[in-house]
Amino acid sequence: MSTDAHEHGAGHSHSHGVGADADRKWLTIALILIGGFMAIEVVIGVIAQSLALISDAGHMLTDAASIVLALIAIRLASRPARGSYTYGLKRAEILSAQANGVTLFLLAAFFIYEGIRRLITPPEVSGLLVFITALAGIAVNVAATWCISKANRSSLNVEGAFQHILNDLYAFIATAVAGAVVWLTGFTRADAIAALVVAALMLKAGWGLVRESGRIFLEAAPANMDPEGIGTQLAALPSVAEVHDLHIWQITSGQPALSAHILVAPDADCHGIRRDIEGLLHTQYDIDHTTLQVDHEDTEASTHCLDPHGEPYRSGENMLPGKG
Prior knowledge:
With 324 residues, the protein is an alpha+beta fold. The protein contains 8 helices and 5 strands, in the order βαααααααββαββ. Helix 1 runs antiparallel to helix 4, helix 4 packs antiparallel against helix 5 (156-185) and helix 5 (156-185) runs antiparallel to helix 6 (189-217). Mean pLDDT is 82; it is low at 9-18 and 317-324. Residues 27-217 form the Cation efflux protein transmembrane domain.
């Protein structure tokens, strides 16, 4: 007897419309705040000849772009699956997060180059103007950060936009310190040093986004799930003889999925065991999207998965004679 089942879990729904609407609202408010202040900062940065301010403005441009990408990705991800896109466009959000990470890398490279150049030949910088503008930027970024924190940050897409804004907040703090130093001491290299600090923060945030989005694209198991531990746990269930072809991945951030081939004892209830496994995965691991093939183990040469992917997990108590 064989049973193949695709399970979404009790009470689980793929409709995230209400959450998506709330995310769009908070992201749009943050976009208006960021876009408006960015235009002002570019003008002041040019007048003050401050690389720190201009780097902040450049960062704010990517902040705005990251929010626009996030809004587009949310809209695309909400479309139902159809045609050859059997998962819909849910990974548009992951593409957005990866794009955010890459833009942070590119901006960091530019500001490192320009910061080093200005350390060597520092220009005149209006410290007081930089300081006042940075304080205003801190207020704007605190408000924008709060807005995005109200959205669903379990989405890597939203988290990407959040990291952009949060890093910009840190950048404004560094710029305010640099402006105060230039204003009070005349040490103009403080402006370039602040820009290098901002670049380091960009690299850190960018790496986190690229790493996490890369794991999803490569269909690695979620970082908080151990496939070996889950396989061993399933194989230890009563009447389960073997678990193989175990795959755990994420369709998009916060939506883990699992598929496996389960071999059970000849007299076992395939459907009952499948339901038990689905309940365990839902309760302990919050995995609602499962595809399980459950078969009776054959005492003869097995015809199931002659070339299974990955390590098979077996329970010594449930093994049939001659197996293992």
